[in-house]
Amino acid sequence: MGLPVGFGPMAMTMATAPATLAGTIAQENAEILAGITISQLLSLGLPVNYWGIPHIIDPATGNISFGSPEQGDRFSIRGVGEYKSEKKLVPG
Known about the structure:
The chain is of the alpha/beta class. The chain has one domain (5-89).
């Protein structure tokens, strides 16, 4: 069948993604599902991993905050249980 493919965009709230938690979740979910769709069109049944690599920008410094509480919140809120693939959160 092939090696699993992982899709994990690194959406950064207030930088490459909307400033709201809901907006960032929606954008990252859409990017992951687009990757999964393309992979299945190219090779039906290819195993895929649903990765979450969300980050938030510290507005005071402009630095990326690795391991922030928002990362876990985004992954749990996202509702990834609806999809039949392995789920992973990469905090940093």
